[in-house]
Amino acid sequence: MQTTLKTPVTFDGFGLHSGRKARMVVRPAVAEHGIWFKRVDIEVGDTLVPARWDAAERTPLCTRIVNRAGVSVSTIEHVMAGLAGCGIHNALIEIDGPEVPILDGSAAPFVKAFLERGLRSLNAPVRAIEVTRTVSVETPNGWARLEPARTPSMEFHIDFEDAAIGAQTKSLTLTNGAFVRELCDSRTFCRLSDVEAMQAQGLALGGTYENAVVVDGDRVLSPGGLRHADEAVRHKMLDALGDLALAGAPILGHYTGVRAGHSMTNMLLEALFTTDGAYRMGMCDPVTRSYLPGAGVALAEMPAVA
């Protein structure tokens, strides 16, 4: 069955790019509601923004959604990954500004709070998007692909000049709480050489060594170093799961990303939904439901950092 949270949960912090203080409340919602954001700092007009692929703008450094009135919410990928990874299908997310708080730069604080609150089953079946035909997109920098598979799974490859990151590849079947155990605590990362350029563009104004992994050549500058030797590629997979969640339902298929980012994953979802015969939507029987990312999730499996 579809799920929602048992009770609301509040997050306070700062936006990674805006540097603005932000409060966000994730509230339970009824069946078939889906995931919506509500800008509570705006008093007039349409303040509801759908967490949906066709509401996303193609921005390179975060995922930003905007409604027809021009109201937007940005950097939603980590909380979306947390919701998807915990198997939460319905929620109303109230936020008092334009950007989700970055917290520690991963999805772990969201996941921990969701699992501590607990989930409630709703009187409606879960539907999943089954990939029935391979679709792919490509840019000069990389490519991404979705292909048929019985279970949700992902493979990602990155390659950076900085030796602290270098070339990394990871594959993962996203079942039985794998997202919670393997990916949710991996933080966003950047190169020191990129920080000044981003800040000159009005980005990364809320970034610190505590909410992002900053590397310089072969050095990791953030206190405590890495949480995983391949934390960078794990975080890219976390981002991809959050961006794929904008499909509006769990995806049964295999995602491959090679130097892919937010815009490319959004392009891939557009290709999926506009290609004849590329997918079908179906009710989940108990066996299929057991394959979805939220099935088998347990708070005891949370990484210690959360």
Automatic annotation (TrEMBL):
InterPro entries hit by this protein: Ribosomal_Su5_D2-typ_SF, UDP-acyl_GlcNac_deAcase, UDP-acyl_GlcNac_deAcase_C, UDP-acyl_N-AcGlcN_deAcase_N
Names of the cofactor(s): Zn(2+)
Which residues are catalytic? Answer: H262 (proton donor)
Gene Ontology MF, one? UDP-3-O-acyl-N-acetylglucosamine deacetylase activity
Query: One Gene Ontology cellular component annotation?
Result: membrane
Q: Which residues bind Zn(2+)?
A: H78, H235, D239
Signal peptide annotation: none
> What keywords would UniProt list here?
Hydrolase, Lipid A biosynthesis, Lipid biosynthesis, Lipid metabolism, Metal-binding, Zinc
Record-linked NCBIfam families: lpxC
Similarity comment: family membership:
Belongs to the LpxC family.
Protein name (record) = UDP-3-O-acyl-N-acetylglucosamine deacetylase
- Organism phylogeny: Bacteria, Pseudomonadati, Pseudomonadota, Alphaproteobacteria, Rhodobacterales
